[in-house]
Amino acid sequence: MYDQSFNYISIARMLRKNDFYTMPRLRTPAVKESELEAAAALSLTGFSGYNFLDSTIVRGKNVYRIPKFSDELVLRKIDRNLRKAKPLHAASRDTIIAKLKNLISESVQCNIYRLDIKSFYESFNASLVLKEVNSIKSLSPQTKKFITDILDNFASGGGSGLPRGLALSATLSEIAMDAFDNSVKSHPNVFFYCRYVDDIIIVTSGNESAKQFIKHIGALLPKGLFLNKTKEKISLVYDSFPIRSTANTPGNPEIYSFEYLGYSFSVFEATKKHDPRNVVLDIAESKVKKIKTRLTKAYIDFSKSRDFDLLELRVKFLTSNFSVADINRGGYRLAGIFHNYHRIDCDKSKALNGLDEYLRRATTSSYGKAFNDFYCSSTALQRRRLLTFSFKKGFEEKVYMHFNREQFTAIRECWEYA
Q1: What is the CB neighbour count within 10 angstroms for residue 9?
Q2: What is the pLDDT of residues 154-194, one digit of tens each?
Q3: Which residue range or ranges hold the Reverse transcriptase domain (predicted)?
Q4: What does the H/E/C string look like for the chain?
Q5: Which residues of 247-260 are buried (b: 16+ CB within 10 A; e: fewer)?
Q6: pLDDT above 90 coverage of the chain, percent
Q7: What pairing do the DSSP bridges indicate for beta strands 190-196 and 233-237?
Q8: What is the structure's pLDDT at 91?
Q9: Structure confidence at residue 128 (pLDDT)
Q10: pLDDT confidence of 36, banded at 50, 70, 90?
């Protein structure tokens, strides 16, 4: 049986392998012992009146972090207890994308709703969240008290809702949203439903009134949460029909497109009635823009520092694949141009070709201040070296690079939050 108690031994089990790589000081036995003892001491005194959070502004919102590692260990234990007492069965991003592609390829009438919850973490009613937590019979009273004290302290310090950025907040939000998720899934017209934090996609039979359906979904949200009207998108898709090609639309016409979880979905009408629709996945335009922004910032930084080795590392990073520490789950996971978007059709990808073209123009063009400064600051040999990299090659050949912790920090420095 899982042990929910807080003590030196149970908290020591919260240590992860990658902790010893991200914080090398923990390899010293005395330092490790000190952190565990401090965490065990906190679990005795509790969080009443104890403020343990720092915050920074990211894209206009407060994002919180836990500066003391001993505090982080206790929060991990609280989060683990909560997840053990109330298991959350969330599908992976990859599973969601695969299911969604298969569903919308079917040549049937449907409505696709792309909805967003406004100020997700900040809008939760803390008392309602605590009510859900306290209703979990298998959760220990000590864990419930810690969560109550944490949210009370956060509110007394001027915080609203749940502190964005904490793994515990993500777990609490999922528990608070569980009833909403089940209500939407059980709606008679809903074929497919997925919510990834605040980002919602729903596929329905198309028999409902879109306006009334969205109103109904908004009414199901927990108190304090509202749909963001500015990000509301609806695609109305009718049953397949025979192709009506024209000189301007040869072949199978595209009937609609949308973005979800970093992918763009382009849906083309079937060749014959009731045949499957052709669904082409590519990298979402929002992600392409993000990569281009990072590339531009890397070139601008080189123009200031003249550090070509660092610029080359950054281009390698963007065009290749690598392993990265998973902060929330522990261990490492694979990431990069292939692993982040492995479900795209490389041969049909406009995004990969567009990124390679942008890299070529950024490297060889003197147009625009940013690229002109780079062109004037670099040598012909350096530019030739950068042109050996390719987003498409990194994807097709699954090119892997290794970056140590110092390199990883230096690479991301000029584009943090970009």
Answers
A1: 10
A2: 999 999 999 999 999 999 999 999 999 999 999 999 999 99
A3: 1-265
A4: CCCCCCCHHHHHCCCCCCHHHHCHHHHCHHHHHHHHHHHHHHHHHCCCCCCCCEEEEECCEEEEECCCHHHHHHHHHHHHHHHHHCCCCCCCHHHHHHHHHHHHCCCCCEEEEEEEECCCHHHCCHHHHHHHHHCCCCCCHHHHHHHHHHHHHHHHCCCCCCCCCCHHHHHHHHHHCHHHHHHHHCCCCEEEEEEECCEEEEEECCCCCHHHHHHHHHHHCCCCCCECHHHCEEEEECCCCCCCCCCCCCCCCEEEEEEECCEEEEEECCCCCCCCCEEEEEECHHHHHHHHHHHHHHHHHHHHHCCHHHHHHHHHHHHCEEEEECCCCCCEEEEECCCCCCCCCHHHCHHHHHHHHHHHHHHHCCCCHHHHHHHHHCCHHHHHHHCCCCHHHHHHCCCECCCCHHHHHHHHHHHCCC
A5: eeeeebeebeebbb
A6: 74
A7: unpaired
A8: 84
A9: 96
A10: very high
Which token pair is 230? 């500015």
